[in-house]
## 1
Amino acid sequence: MDIFDKYELLAQRRSQLLGAGADPFDLEIEDLHGPCEATIRGRRTILVGTNNYLGLTFDPECIEAGCAALRRLGTGTTGSRIANGTYASHRALEAEIAAFMGRAHAIVFTTGYQANLATISGLAGPKDVIFVDSDWHASIFDGCRLSGATVVRFRHNDPDDLDRRLERNPNPGGCRLIIVEGLYSMLGDVARLREIVAVKKRHGAFLLVDEAHAMGVFGAKGRGVAEAQGVEAEVDVIVGTFSKSLGAIGGFAVSDHPRFELLRVAARPYMFTASPGPATIATVRTALAKIAAHPELRARIWENAQRLHAGLSALGFTLCAPPGPILSIRLPDERTTVFAWNRLLELGVYVNLALPPGTPGGVCLLRGSVSAAHTPEQIEEVLARFARLAEELRQLTARVAAE
Amino acid sequence: MRASRHAPAMSTPDPDRLLVEISALVARFAPAGAQLTRATELVSDLSIDSVAAMDLVMEIEERYGIDIPVNEIADLVTLGDLVDLVARRLAARS
């Protein structure tokens, strides 16, 4: 037996995909021309699938802050937070995130993935039960597994199903933790947080909301969906990322729980990895100050989202959610979706190809995400290229029907 | 306990009936015409991957008004394992 035999099914899926002419896991960005354009396969391409919601990756002040930190503090910390990896700037960023999110405590993590891994595995233990939305991100799944807790999935965005499951699992010997996302990353739909909070209160459970895709975009101050729905006080812990609206890499968790800082000596993915480098910390601090000071960035991404959503709908595409930063187009099958994804790349538009088993309910998606940095001209150009795709898809459907 | 839409009061079905009922649910996730016996392997015979297995389990949970923790799904190999797991959860409920 070979050690890779266990991946037989996975290998079959991968060669099926390669046979259909796509390897979405091996796409190379050959060069970048600002936050919204790149060279891919030798072609100038408009990026509509990078989660770069506020377009801050090329912000001159963020870049300068990063360069200055590199010169002053070096290329890396070469240590974990519990050894030599806590610099004054890590502490300063934590204070600034706590202030931005309106919380008493903030902890910074090296990646967004680790933010969930550390927070969930730190909060929950083997005697606890976690109730998690069934459209969970891999980092939530892995955090749940690492915690050793009993994990119960509830129907996606279904407070009644959550209620029934909490009712069936009182777990008197431990705690109960509910985990949902503010904005779901695949379909772009928003959590029904008000109702989930009502269920949470009725059962005396804890609630963690992952605002990775919502921070910077939702809420009057950009804190996320919990802020937008006015339920922040009932959310015990919020997890977020630096790799979307903040344009860098890393993650954080915030809470008002008086014992939250214990996670620093309990959460292994926090303790046993090198801390984020000084340049990353510096760009995130600058970006955070920017999104606090410039609410017009949020206004711009929403305008772009409305325009792109309206244009794509008018072209006859089926969008999975109302206008928002994530615009996922549902296509009928894998063959059509792979064709469309490749064709868009040839036309100079990059979106994400999302196929089962990575999608909820086995749907095939072209997953787009819009940025505040997209110009009106870029949005128009993207729509013009989608119009060509729509026409080609109509011809393809007609040909298949005639065969 | 509150009345629940998806959890009708029912006695635990006998093992044979449980196998028939669960096979009917599994069939929706399996290739058409696949043979379903207690020995049928979910991954190698039916190509039900880990994500599909979780969706299948959610259907079963709704059908019987039980919760099957994700932790227990990973250990499932055969359809018989799945039937036994459901029987255990039903017994724990009653």
## 2
Amino acid sequence: MIVEIVDEIAPGQVYAELSHPNSGGICVFVGAVREFTDNEEVKALEFEAYKSMALREMEKIAGEATQKWELNKVVIRHAVGKKEVEEPVVVVGASSAHRDACFEACRYLIDTLKERVPIWKKEIFKNKMVWVSAHP
Amino acid sequence: MEVLLFGIAKDIVGTSSFRFEGGDVVPQSVLELKERLSETFPEFDNLSSLAVAVNSEYADDSKGLNLGDEIAIIPPVSGG
């Protein structure tokens, strides 16, 4: 199990991290910076984490996934700092004997991360900055 | 008791942390801390939600607070 908060994400390294002799399936989700939010051009996203708690929550989520599915390897890695359009900001992945387990686990990893891991992103537009999801 | 602030909470209060010392009127529970924040900074009432972590664990409103605790004010998370 690899759980990390880093300054830069290199999505290519995740294959080696998830590879396992008993894993016939490796599933990876990469989240990246999108250029438009509601037709407004995003210049960059800035991520901030409550690092000690975020790592604990990410470890819990990885542990929950290994309870729910038969997984050989799990990776959850999130970036902090300023990220520009097309840059990767999060990578989650799992590997398992067959594909169903790793597909389902991968979705669980990213969906649950978004619900509870204490990480925040600010959208930086041309003329304003907005903390995402802060207001109804 | 150290209180850490993140995301929009940091912007509302204007600092990334503050402390309650022994001589201060220290909030006794998570709910009391939230009420105190809302009174001083009404903008907290406009948020979609507000969570509090005590020593890096999400805590219910009824959770009691101690002077040695590390508290975090957690506005709606938006990782990923």
